[in-house]
Design goal:
The complex is a heterodimer of chains A (about 280) and B (about 110). Chain A has 2 domains: about 210 residues, 3-Layer(aba) Sandwich (Rossmann fold); about 45 residues, Alpha-Beta Plaits, CATH 3.30.70. Chain A has 11 helices and 11 strands. In chain A, α1 crosses α11. Chain A is elongated. Chain B is of the alpha/beta class. Chain B has a single domain, classed as Nucleotidyltransferase, domain 5. In chain B, strands 3-2-1-4-5-6 form a 6-stranded mixed β-sheet, with helices on both faces. Classes of the chains: A alpha/beta (about 280), B alpha/beta (about 110). The complex binds iron/sulfur cluster (2 copies). The site of one iron/sulfur cluster has 13 residues of chain A, from α4.
């Protein structure tokens, strides 16, 4: 089963939920945890371990200047504006290129070749028995989050239990990370802002046709509005984590709730079974 | 020389548009003959890369200088590489006004 953990905004404790879930499930089976928050991956902080890292590249065009006749066909074709043809040279803007390969096909002089351009890295590690951690990291300034996420997800292969930590928000990278998952956990906080962002996130996953449940984090006990929203939208509240100094302290020192206080493991186990039930439900 | 001015309409009486890639029109004023030509910008509502696309368009029309309000980094890179001087006009006047200022050498050149 593939499970995504998402939230409408940052700082709700999304990564914390993903990490605790993975840690708990790794005791009884094989789990792959994927950090798809590629602009700011942080799961490795919960699981320090030596990792193997490789580059992620995308194909981009390279102009063979001596063959180019500056006809302008490539620039005319490129709808992303990544190529501009001057009378004496061709300018390429890699951050605008979507790697469609079209310019290569339309060039009448075969003056365009394909080269690899690095956009980020993929790291894998085995921090404990039963747990594989895959981290996608986007190079600073690169706009190509989506291919990094795709690669990170492919890396997991067909492992039985996969947990994907998405970027916060509801943008393209989130859609890419959540897409194809069997169920999604939406993490929220019991504030009016939290509820608003939960609504946005719930809307995205429902459009993707992915069943979802909710985890309320740092609850102050006044969750009436959130509970009402979840009832109205048929979202199961899978767990409520109360606001507590002790829990905050555990997190602040980079530890996991389920490691420091193993009695929490049964709560995370039950989230997993609820997700399984959701995934099996008719869509 | 042809001077390209970003405009909200298709005549020299139109207001100068401050955006470059998303300007509705480009007005090409001929500084030798005083004649003009208007080009509707096909990229005004484009999704991305509109700056360099628009820059390519005015290069293909042989513009030697550009007057606009704001210019993105990629469009500037194209125009710099092609040797097209860029000037800023943000006084809210018409294309004619901007062109007059250009001729009087009172416009600020983009560095
Ligand atoms: S299409 Fe080929 S020959 Fe024409 S400008 Fe582009 S690279 Fe040069
Ligand atoms: S590969 Fe596609 S997006 Fe990239 S420069 Fe060529 S035509 Fe443009």
């Amino acid at each position: 089963m593939k499970l995504a953990v998402a939230s409408g905004k940052g700082g709700t404790g999304k990564s914390m939920v993903a990490a605790n879930l993975a840690f708990t499930l790794a005791w009884t089976g094989e789990v792959t945890l994927i950090d798809c928050d590629v602009e700011e991956p942080n799961l490795h902080l919960f699981f320090p371990a030596p990792a193997t890292t490789r580059d992620i590249t995308i194909p981009v065009p390279s102009i063979v200047e001596f063959a180019c006749k500056h006809c302008g066909k490539c620039a005319e074709f490129c709808q992303y504006g990544a190529l501009t043809v001057l009378p004496d040279r061709v300018l390429f803007f890699p951050e605008l290129c979507h790697s469609c390969g079209g310019c290569m096909l339309v060039c009448p002089k075969n003056a365009i070749t394909e080269v690899s351009r690095r956009i980020g890295t993929l790291s894998t590690s085995v921090p404990m028995k039963g747990l594989q951690l895959i981290t996608g990291t986007l190079d600073t300034g690169s706009p190509h989050a989506v291919p990094v996420i795709r690669e990170a997800k492919t890396m997991a292969g067909h492992n039985t239990t996969v947990i994907i930590d998405t970027a916060p928000g509801t943008s393209c990278p989130v859609v890419e990370a959540v897409d194809g998952c069997d169920a999604c956990i939406l993490v929220t906080e019991s504030t009016p802002f939290g509820l608003h962002d939960l609504q946005l996130a719930a809307d995205v996953v429902s459009r993707l046709g992915i069943p979802a449940g909710v985890v309320i984090n740092r609850s102050d006990g006044k969750d009436d509005q959130t509970i009402q929203f979840c009832t109205d939208h048929d979202l199961d509240i899978m767990m409520t984590i109360p606001f507590s100094r002790e829990i905050a302290a555990i997190q602040n020192r980079g530890d996991l709730l389920t490691r420091a206080r193993p009695e929490w493991q049964k709560d995370f186990c039950s989230i997993f079974f609820k997700c399984k039930a959701l995934a099996g439900r008719e869509r | 020389m042809k001077v390209c001015i970003t405009a909200q309409g298709a005549t020299p009486e139109s207001k100068v548009e401050e955006r470059f890639g998303r300007a509705p029109y480009f007005i090409l004023m001929d500084s030798d003959t005083g004649s003009f030509e208007a080009i509707a910008n096909p990229y005004a509502d484009g999704a991305g890369g509109v700056g360099p696309k628009a820059a390519q368009l005015i290069l293909d029309r042989n513009a030697g200088a550009l007057i606009s309000g704001l210019l993105g980094g990629n469009a500037k890179a194209v125009l710099d590489a092609a040797g097209v001087a860029q000037y800023t006009y943000r006084s809210g006047g018409t294309v004619k006004d901007a062109f007059a200022e250009f001729r009087n050498n009172t416009l600020q050149k983009v560095g």
